[in-house]
Amino acid sequence: MSDDPPVSILLPTTKWTTACTELATQLGDDDELVIIHDNEDDPVTEREDSPEGVRLIAAGEPDGCSGKANAIAAGMEAARHDRLVWTDDDFHHPSDWLGEMKSDYAEYGPVSEVPYFVGRDPLSVLLEPLYASAGSLGLYLGNQIWGGAVMFERDDIDEAAFLDELRQTVSDDGLLMEYLVVTTVGRTRIVPIGGTIREAIERPVRWTKILRWHFPGTVAGTCLVSLLVLAMAILVPLYMVILLTAAHLAVNEILGVRRWTAILAYPALFVFVPLVFYALVRRTFVWGGRRYRWCGKFDVRVVE
């Protein structure tokens, strides 16, 4: 029998997904899966035979924060245990997922995994290599947090201050990065994204604004480097086609993912850079069916 303390898995979702079933089957005797939805009208509440150890919590409508931040805050307050796992419902959790997270925490303390975003629409597919290099690789090399797979304990952070700020902002993991130091273990999870061109445009807007409000120096550096690389791509195209393709093949190897989309790195650059600057001037964005106006780190308005 394992000596690991019990965990509370926090899973924001409004419907019962494959991830819910996967996680429910991995619970230990005292573990719990806390499914956080918005209200009693959500489809997940219609399920009559929730497995043992699964609880449903209604977070209510967000006020002054994102729906995800509101859900995580409600889940942390409702969770019964001190060891917490945050995860998402949009990727596959293999049968040993929770066990590996527990083992990693025992060895390293707070831990996180790395996402690799795979597109489901033409624009998201095109942007895959730059999401890998500008996003996933940075998380992996910088030991940064991905809210889709992170384990920590309440005592690892100033929980009261964190929850207070969480209910005033958009990004759950962006804020957690300011409170928690993690070790990023060498496991990459494939996360399907997009589906429509509109979704593909909204996502980089949200991600860019996370950098703007939580890590302004990073977004400034990203803009500068992007412009320099784009200029070189225009001046010496053949050289840059070879260099960018090789670099992104190497990124995929580091992340342990084999994707043909690395060959799109050069044309993706001509879309990615304008999108970054568009994101900086865009006033609102849509996430999870709600439109937000994020005017400051702790100034969030739900406008739809």
Topology diagram in text:
Blueprint: E1 7-12, H1 18-24, E2 32-37, E3 54-58, H2 67-78, E4 83-87, H3 97-108, E5 111-119, H4 122-141, E6 149-153, H5 159-166, H6 172-176, E7 183-193, H7 197-214, H8 216-235, H9 237-255, H10 265-281, E8 284-287, E9 290-296, E10 299-302
Parallel strand pairs: 1-2, 1-4, 2-3, 5-7
Antiparallel strand pairs: 4-6, 5-6, 8-9, 9-10
Helix pairs in contact: 4-9, 4-10, 7-8, 7-10, 8-9, 8-10
Characterize the structure shown.
With 304 residues, the protein is an alpha/beta fold. The protein has a domain of 145 residues: Spore Coat Polysaccharide Biosynthesis Protein SpsA, Chain A, CATH 3.90.550. The protein has ten helices and ten strands. The chain has a seven-stranded mixed β-sheet, with helices on both faces. β8 and β9 form a beta hairpin. α4 packs across α10 and α7 packs across α10. The radius of gyration is 19 Å and the shape is globular. The termini are far apart. The model has no long low-confidence stretch (mean pLDDT 95). It is a multi-pass membrane protein. Its EC number is 2.4.-.-. One of its GO terms (molecular function) is ceramide glucosyltransferase activity.
CATH class of the domain at 1-108 and 145-181: Alpha Beta
Give the fraction of residues assigned to helices: 40-55%
At CATH level 3, the topology of the domain at 1-108 and 145-181 is: Spore Coat Polysaccharide Biosynthesis Protein SpsA, Chain A
Say how many strands there are. 10
What structural class should be given to the helix and strand makeup?
Answer: alpha/beta
